[in-house]
Amino acid sequence: MSVLEPQVDAPTLPAEVKAAITELRKRYPTAEAVLLPALHLAQKAWGGWLPDAAIAAVAAELGLPVTKVYGVVTFYDLYHQNPVGKHRIRVCTNLACQLRGAEEIMEVLHAELGVGEDEVTPDGRCSFVHFECLGSCDTAPMMMVDDDYHENLTPQSVRTILQGLK
Ligand code: FES
After folding, report:
1. In the chain, where the domains are located
2. Which of 5, 57, 59, 146 could tie 66 with a disulfide, CB 3.0–4.6 Å?
3. pTM (predicted TM-score)
């Protein structure tokens, strides 16, 4: 599936996404039920994120209100309204992690990656955001890289983790 530029004036889905959604609709009882997989398909087609045009196109394809689709996109962490890196880093900044150095972890990421929070490195490799509690408070401070937990972080361990990301 190719990566597309957003088409703000004419929000349409790529033909292969439309075809995949048509197939999905045969297996799901309602348009609402197809919405999550349809958004995944659109996000992949748009290169890993969902610009307004993609959201509008999915809404139009499924005959759903755009506001409803926005509600789903903003609710789930799996959908992105901004470009994200190939590796997505989430740093917990809730209380336990905050007390044990989450701010310093954020600073190390900023310094090592050379971009700010919610920005993508020029090579497209990484982006990072702060996040709510990720359920690993006893091993604070911690962060997730893609689906992996990294715990008891130190500035040096963060640097080592970053060096291992291809
Ligand atoms: S406060 Fe950081 S994982 Fe819970």
Report:
1. 15-75, 87-163
2. 59
3. 0.78
